[in-house]
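Follow-up to my earlier ticket, as requested here are the two runs.
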Amino acid sequence: MAAVDLVAHVHRLTRIRDAALYDLLSGGLSHWGPHEENTALLLEHQAYALELTWSDRITDPDDPKLKRERAQAKKAGIKPPPHPLIPPVAHRPDSLAEQRLREYLDAIERHRAGPPPEVKYLSSADFDREMGLTAEPV
C-alpha cells in the first residue's frame, strides 16, 4: 500500500504548477501556460497593428519614390504574403523565443522563395520527342 501512496503523491506533485517536479518535467516552462502565450500573441498583434498604423500615417501615397518602388515590385511580380508575417517581439522563455523566431524566419524564407514551380506534364510521345528518342515529325 505504501507504493500506491507514493505514486499518488508523485502524481499530485506533477500537477502542481509551483512544484519543482512540475518545473523539471516541463523543461523549465512551468510558469508559462496558455494564458501567458495568448497574452504574448496579443502583444505581438497590437505592436504589429501599431507599426502598420504609424507607417500608414507617415507614408505619402503620392510620393514619386514610393510610386516607383511599387511599380518595380509589380513588374518583378513581388506580392505581399497571403497572411501577415508578425515578428515575435513579446518576452518569452528562451526556448520558446528561439522557436518563434525560427518559425518567423522560416515563414519569411518561404514567402521569398515564391510558389513552387509549375509541374509540366507531357504525353509519352512528347516526352520521347523532348528526350530525342524519336525523330521530329516533318
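Run two:
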Amino acid sequence: MTTLTLRRGLTTTATVGVLLLAATACSDNSSTEQAPTTSASAPASTPASASASPTGSDRSTPMRVTIDGQEVEATLNDSPAGRDLASLLPLTLDLEDFHGTERIADPPRKLTTENAPEPQAPRTGDLTYYAPWGNLAIFYKDGPSASSDLLVLGHLDADQLAGADRITIEAAS
C-alpha cells in the first residue's frame, strides 16, 4: 500500500508540474511575441501636427481646408470619429462663436463615438466633435479640461480662427 500511495503522489506531482510548465511556456511565448508586434506597429516618427496636438491616434491624414476663402494646413486623425467625418467630405459649414473659445458648426449627421481615444483637453487649432450636441468645434483658444464628450478629430494650423465665418473641408488630393 505504501508503494501505491507513493506512485499516486508522484503521478499527481508530475501532472501538476507539467501543467505549470505548459502554462508558463504559453505565458512566456505570448508576452515575448506581443512586445515586438506592438513596437513594430508603432510609427517611426510622429507628424508635426500630431505632436502639437495629440489625438489619441498615431496616424493623421492631410485635409484641404479653406477658412473664409483662405487655405490652411490641416490634418484629420485616424480615429473612428475622424474616419466618419472623412466619409462626409466635402463639407462647407457656417461657423458661429461659442464661449469666446471656439467656433462651432453642425455636420449633416452625428458622428460615431465608438472606440474613442482617451479624452484630452482641446488646444488652439484643434478640430473636435462634441458628442452630446453632435457639433464640430474649432478651438481658437485652449479649451477646458479633458472630457469624454469632446473628441479631438484633427488639427488646423491657422491664425484667423477667432473670426472665421465659413469653413470648407475636403479630402486632400
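The only thing I checked on run two: The radius of gyration is 26 Å. Let me know what else you need.
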